Structures are given as structure tokens and as C-alpha cells.
Amino acid sequence: MIQSKRKWWVLVTVSLTVFMAMLDITIVNVALPDIQQAFSSNFSNLQWVLNAYTLVYAAMLLPVSKLGDIIGRKKVFLLGLGIFMIGSLTSGLANSDTWLNIFRGFQGIGGAAMMSLSLTIVTSSFPEKQRGLALGIWSSAVGLAIAGGPLIGGALVDAFGWRSIFLVNIPVAIVAILLGMFVIKESETNRNGKIDIWGLIFSTAMIFTMILAFIQKSVNGDYAWTDWHILSLLGLSLILLIAFIVTERKVEQPMIELSIFKNWTFNGANIAAFVLGAGLYGGFTYLTILMQNYMGYSAFDTGAKMLLISGFTIVLGPIAGIISGKIGNRWLVSGALFIGAIGIFVMRYMIKAPFEWSYLMPGFILLGISNALVNPPITTAAMSSVDKEYVGMASGILNVFRQLGISFGVVLLGIKLTEGYNDSLNTNIMKVANIPAEFRNQMLDVFHKAGAFGGSQLFDSKQVEVFKDVPAFDEMKTIVFNAFNAGMQNVTLLIGIFLLIGTFASAILIKNKKKTQNEN
Asked: Which Pfam families match (predicted)?
């Protein structure tokens, strides 16, 4: 009975920590204006408040998984919790944007340990019969944190200021550490295990340079993919990947056992995780911009609206874990991604300027159902497709694919948004009559510099104050809103394509595990 209760307390502990780790990727978005005001930061430094955490977090997912296999998952998990807590405290007390960025990077180390090892701890704590339910609850914590970040962040910033989004982690981390010390059992360790130093260096540097290339493209919208800033990082990442593969084939105890990629189910789960990150989670950024900058919702109200997506995970996440054991992961993953694709195409069909909540709500409901149903079977498929000795590796790889997908999606969707916005802006402003060419060119320059993120706030700024008496000024606002809508048409189309790719890839690659006689 005690052992039976212990595993559920383990699940509570790791779900709590996973929620914190994923929340800190999204929660900061709504606090950026306050942080910028507090430190008088420029846009580049401000972006690194987000990117420092994401960059280190992604790069450390594989190393901490391997370290857990060698010295014990409980030790590394609790150490990660301690690092995360210290990083949160120092971030909350930072007296400059530079120090905040440094502490956010340190915090990312802890977040990676918490995220990656929590999955292996849950997998090893539950028997196969209950694993689907447990992983469903774990996945619900992930989905809820990603979608609920704006709401929680908005509430904390409004009530207590931007520092509270970091300091709130302290009491939660203390509770999680105390629980973890008592309820989590230490895993079996490989006493003869050795750290694959070159594999560690190559894999960490490969992920670091790839994510950094995406960040450079995101921060510098005028850079083409062929710009040397981007191309050199992507080229270096490819060289490091080749070096990593060559190294892993030769060492006795590799960082990653490459043979696990011969498993089609494992590959299908990782592709599904990537497209889910690129499409749905990457798209959250631009849905947030739409609601805040063009529909006039506050940060808190935007978060509340996003709960329509995340709220389904509370109920459907655990149920999805149970269902996956009945019908198999294959059809649940592909079916859930297909529901998400339908949701995004419904939204694409309905959305238009001036924007209204009723245009988004049906799509949000379908995306919420998709998000709730898809995470548990992806996780179950990946973890159950490898031998027990490789679950740590599998966890790290799955999380890397999800995070790479998010980073890639944010960049690519941002490019498509900007392309649609600029093309529509250029075409429609030239059609406006009764306006001097000089003013038209000046306003076009202002709108381009503000970019698609400018929104309605742009028309209340000093930048356009001098144009308010110009004929057709009100028509200009309509043109800008229609331009953003053109960009969102591109964004939603690309998200739908991502989700459809995942639908077909998972249906083809993921194989349902045959039940043994003992499982029936």
C-alpha cells in the first residue's frame, strides 16, 4: 500500500517541477514591457531574457539525461531543482538586464534536468499497465504550463511586479525538493559508466549553435537564411552533427545509442513532438500578439482566453493516457494532430479584420482538444519503444525535438507573418487616394519599422502623431490591420501544414505495441 501511494506522490512531485520548467519558457513574455522599463533595455537585450533560458535549456537536455543514468536520476533531478531555485532567486534580484540574462541561462540548466529526468522517473516508477495514465498526467502539466504562461505571468506582473514571476518559484521548488527527497527512489546506476566527453561536447555545441541560428534569425528579421550570421551557425551545427555521429559509432559507451533511431515508432514520436512544437506551441506567440496588440486584450485577459486551449489538458490529458493503452498510440497521435489541423484551418477561414473573439473561439476549442490528446501518446510511444536502459536517452531526445520544434516554429512563422504583412501593406497603401506621396512614403516607412507587432498601439504613439491630420489616416489603420490579417493567413496555413505532416508521419511510422498474454 505504501509503495502504491509513493508512486503517485512521485508523479505529483515531477509534474510540479515540469510545470515550473516549462512555465518559465512562456511566462516571461508578458513581463517584458516592465523589464524593459525597469532596466531601460534595448530590444536586443530584452530578447535575451527569453533566449538565454531557452538556449541553455535545449543544449543541456541530453547531457543531464546521460549524467542521471551514470550517477543516479534522483541526485541529478534534485540538483537540477536546486540550480533552478537559485537561478530563479538571482533572476528575481537581478539589478541589470545583463545579470538577468546570465541568471536566466543558469536557471535553464536546472530546467533541463527537471524536464528530462522527470520523464524517466515517471516511466520507471509506474508499471506498464498504469504508465499511460501517469504519462498523461505528466503531459497535462507540460501543456498547461505552455498555454497557461501568459495568464499566470499576467496575474503576477499586475499584482506584484515582474520580479514575482521568478521569486514565486522559490517556495514551490522548496516543496518539490522536500517531496523528492522522501518519495523518489534512486535509480540503478551504471557503476562502470563513463561520460562520453567528445559526444557531450559535440551534442551540446550542435544544439547550441542550431538554436542560436534560429534566435539570430528571429531577432534580426532583415537577415536572410543565407546571411553569414545564420549560415555560419547552421553550417557549424551540421559539422558538429557529423562529428557527433562519427564519435558515437566508435566510443564504447556513447552519449546516444544511435541504434534507437532504427525504431520507426521512436522516430515517429519525435517527428510528432517536433511538428507539435513548431506548429501549435510556436503559434502561441503570434496568437498572443493578435489578441494583445490588435484586439486590445490585457496580458491577463489574453492568458484567460488561452485557457480555452490549455484547460482541456486537465481533463483530457489523463484520459488520453488511458485511451492510448486501449486503441494504441498510433491513431491517437495522428488523430489528435488532425483535429488540431482542422482547428487551425477553421480559424484561418473565419479570421478577418476587425478581429473578434468569435473568430478564434471554435479553432481554440479544437486546438485545446488536440493539445490535450496528443502529448500523452507521443510520450508513451517514445518511452515504450526503447529498452529500459535507454529511457534516459529517449527522454532527452524527445525533449530536444520538442524544443527545437518550438524554436524553429517561432522563427519560420514569424518570417511568414512578416512577409504577408509587408506584401499587403505595400500593395494597399499605394491604392490610397488623396494623400501626398511624401506622407505615404513616410508612413509606409514607419509601419515597416514598427513591423507586424506594432498593432493598435502604434496609432497612439508619437511616431504617427504627426500624420493624424493627413487625409485617409483612419484608412491607414484599416490597412495595417488587414496587413496583419494577411500575415496571420500565412501563419495559420503553415501551422496547418506542420500538423498535417505530423498526422501522416505518425500514422505511417508509429506502430502499436502488441499486448503480451500477461497484459490482457
From this structure: MFS_1
